[in-house]
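Thread: Newbie trying to understand structure tokens

Hi all, I'm a second-year student working on a class project, and my supervisor (Dr. K.) asked me to get a predicted structure for one chain before our next meeting. I've only ever worked with sequences, so writing a 3D structure as a token string is new to me. If someone could post the tokens and maybe explain what I'm looking at, I'd be very grateful. Here's the chain:
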Amino acid sequence: MSDATTVFVLNGPNLNLLGLREPEIYGHDTLDDIAGRMEDQAQEIGLTIDFRQSNHEGHLVDWLHEANAAGAKAVLLNAGAYTHTSVALHDAIKAINVPVIEVHLSNPHKREEFRHKSYVGMAAKGTIAGFGALSYSLALDAAASL
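---
Reply by user tm_fold:
Sure, no problem. This is what the structure looks like when written as tokens:
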């Protein structure tokens, strides 16, 4: 069970391939590397991380609902490609009271035009993008200040 010191970190499709998939865009860090650094950072600032990844949109929706039911402090959401397609994630974010911070390793606005629209960003409290794996750390700092 979570509480107001828990930050859910939810990761969408293909992020399980970090470190292998297009490292020139996403870097060489694996998702496990990022999770480990986030755990250390969270411990230093008195928070707990609940770090998850799924390639399935419904899991992300369910986890947003779970974060809300648990009274989590915040959700950091890297929805991957669902960022640009998922009205379901948009609606789930709007339906919960927990603040959601959108996270991206790359800067979607410097990429293909179809990546410029974010359904997640339209509903999220804020967005941190373009800093590689550091985006997660910056988002955790932002969540800690909420």
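A couple of things are worth pointing out once you decode it. The chain has a mean pLDDT of 91. Residues 31-44 form the longest helix (14 residues). Feel free to ask follow-ups in this thread.
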